[in-house]
Structure formats: structure tokens, C-alpha cells
Design a protein that fits this description.
The protein has 3 helices and no strands. With 125 residues, it is mainly alpha-helical.
């Protein structure tokens, strides 16, 4: 049912795009550019044309299929919610991963400065 509704929605979208593109705009006449458009009860184009009625029907069908798809999507749930979550393995932090505010405990003997005696100066020959 969901797949059929998606296909119907795509067909309605393509038809609506095609119908809108083949219509001429209201200001497409040469007389409208110079202010000579005819003002009648229904405007310069007259009563609603067949393409206008099809456009309205297509827009209504588009809205119905869009709302239906939204309702079905909520009922189906997300694709990601059906995948079981895996726990990440615990990885110990190293010195390079520790931030500047985190201090690593010093190992015994580490951090102490050991002074080595300087070698005795040899006599110059």
C-alpha cells in the first residue's frame, strides 16, 4: 500500500509539473505589456480553462497523497528505529586523546627529575 501510494504521488508530481509548464501566463499577451489588457468579469483570460481545472484537481490530489504519505510514515516508524542499537566498545584514553583540562595520574617515579652527575672534566693535554 505504501509503495503504491509513493508511485501515485510521483505520477501526480510529474503530471502537475507538466500541466503547469504548458500553460501560458496571464501576462504573456503583447497587449498586457502596454497596459491594454481587457478587464472583464473573469479577468483577461475569461472563465477558468480546462488546464486550470486540471491544475486544481492535480494540486488537491498532490496534497491528499502528501498527507497520506506523512500519516503512513508515522505509523510505519523510522527505518533507523527498527535497527537494534549496538553498544560501543570501551576504548581507554591515551595521552593524545586526553583534553587539556584532564590530568593523567603520574606513574611512580615519573615526573621526578633525576640529576645525573656530570662526567669529570679530563685534563687538557
Amino acid at each position: 500500500m505504501y509503495a503504491a501510494l509513493v508511485v501515485l504521488h510521483l505520477i501526480v508530481c510529474l503530471c502537475l509539473i507538466f500541466i503547469i509548464l504548458i500553460q501560458s501566463s496571464k501576462g504573456a499577451e503583447m497587449g498586457a505589456a502596454f497596459g491594454g489588457s481587457n478587464q472583464t468579469l473573469f479577468g483577461s483570460r475569461g472563465a477558468a480553462t480546462f488546464l486550470n481545472k486540471i491544475t486544481t484537481a492535480g494540486a488537491i490530489l498532490f496534497m491528499i497523497t502528501s498527507l497520506s504519505l506523512a500519516v503512513f510514515s508515522v505509523k510505519r516508524g523510522s527505518v533507523m528505529s527498527s535497527v537494534p542499537a549496538k553498544e560501543a566498545p570501551a576504548i581507554p584514553l591515551t595521552d593524545t586523546q586526553a583534553g587539556p583540562l584532564q590530568e593523567q595520574p603520574a606513574a611512580p617515579g615519573q615526573g621526578e627529575v633525576q640529576e645525573t652527575p656530570a662526567p669529570p672534566a679530563e685534563a687538557a693535554k
